[in-house]
Amino acid sequence: MIKVQITDDHRMVVESLSKLINETAIARVERVYYNLASCREGLKEGLPGILLLDIGLPDGDGVNFCAEVMKQYPSLKIIMLTSYKEFSIAKRALHNGALGYILKNAESEEMFMGIETVNRGELFLCDEIDILLKEKANDGVVWLSERESQVLKYVADGYTTKEIAGFIFRETDTVKSFRKNLLIKLNARNVAELIKKAYEMKLIW
């Protein structure tokens, strides 16, 4: 059973989402917060398997908060749950360490799939955001999450998959998934080409 915590200032959203999640056999909502301050204090008492985090909160920006807590709790898995579907916001959230980005109008099945996928340490984007980012990729824009940027730097420095897994507190299979995603995003056939393109695109230096 995946332990979930929710941070969202809309009580009806929190109540309906909690009910949906608790009716499944995959996850259980153990705590809810209505602002960043209470979430910050709650995380000190114990980390969830998944933190569902809104962006527009009364006491701050959830995307900035994501970067803050990821520095403090690098093993925390965060899914941004929001109505914002702008490319720049999604890109910034992923860069700040979020492993998931789901719109509030997404189907419940997509939400559950996202929780299971991110719980495995893999990236999950709802269909609408996935299409948006792929369209931008076709325009020559390459976006990397903060975790992908870390893995890319370690790969360029010559570290093995096992060593990288230890550095970022993830399973080796998760690191393999990151490496595969990097090859796809940079359209590279192998690690050597990946590193060459990364330097050319100023993704590492």
Write the layout of secondary structure elements.
Layout: E1 2-7, H1 11-22, E2 27-33, H2 36-45, E3 50-53, E4 56-57, E5 60-61, H3 62-72, E6 78-82, H4 87-95, E7 100-103, H5 108-119, E8 124-125, H6 127-138, H7 146-156, H8 161-168, H9 172-185, H10 191-200
Parallel strand pairs: 1-2, 1-3, 3-6, 6-7, 7-8
Antiparallel strand pairs: 4-5
How would you describe what is shown here?
The protein contains ten helices and eight strands. The protein is α/β, with parallel strands linked by helices. Strands 2-1-3-6-7-8 form a six-stranded parallel sheet, sandwiched between helices.
CATH level-four homologous superfamily name of the largest domain:
Response regulator
Structural class assignment = alpha/beta
Looking at the overall shape, the CATH architecture of the largest domain is 3-Layer(aba) Sandwich
Rough outline: globular
Order of helices and strands: EHEHEEEHEHEHEHHHHH
Annotation, overall tally of beta strands? 8
Major β-sheet annotation: 6 strands, parallel
Backbone CA Rg? 17 Å
- The average pLDDT score comes to 90
Please, how many domains? Answer: 2
Q: State the share of residues found in helices, binned by percent.
A: 40-55%
CATH topological fold name of the largest domain: Rossmann fold
Our count of helices gives 10
What share of the residues does DSSP label as strand, in percent? Answer: 15-25%
Distance between the termini: 42 Å
Report the CATH C-level class of the largest domain: Alpha Beta
Which residues form runs of ≥5 with pLDDT under 50?
none
Strand order of the largest sheet: 2-1-3-6-7-8
